[in-house]
């Protein structure tokens, strides 16, 4: 099942630091062994609800094991401080739903569990 790394990065206080730019130049190369690919990367976004500051990032991986392995990999851990020293962020890994997913079934399961 496809897994996703979802991040909110920043905002930056002024121009991006040179280390952050080096991180951006190198991150894509860390995906290859794990089958990862950017779906969204620092794109403009429209806030509809809530309080979202920073840039959205969405990376797809073939499965959760490979997503975890990418994040823990020596290659990614080596470049991670280039960003974290200068930009705050929130990152989660989440497994996607199957193609035939139906939210009504999930609602029924939650309703039953709460009864």
TrEMBL record:
Residues 2-97 form the DUF1330 domain. It holds the Pfam family DUF1330. SUPFAM superfamilies: Dimeric alpha+beta barrel. It comes from the Bacteria. This is Uncharacterized protein (DUF1330 family). It comes from Streptomyces candidus.
């Amino acid at each position: 099942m496809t897994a996703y790394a979802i991040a909110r990065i920043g905002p930056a206080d002024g121009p991006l630091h040179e280390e952050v730019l080096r991180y951006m130049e190198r991150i894509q190369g860390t995906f290859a062994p794990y089958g990862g690919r950017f779906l969204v990367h620092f794109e403009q976004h429209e806030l509809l609800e809530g309080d979202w500051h920073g840039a959205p990032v969405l990376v797809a991986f073939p499965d959760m094991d490979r997503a975890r392995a990418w994040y823990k990999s020596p290659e990614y851990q080596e470049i991670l401080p280039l960003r974290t020293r200068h930009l705050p962020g929130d990152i989660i890994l989440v497994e996607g739903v199957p193609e035939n997913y139906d939210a009504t079934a999930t609602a029924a399961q939650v309703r039953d569990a709460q009864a």
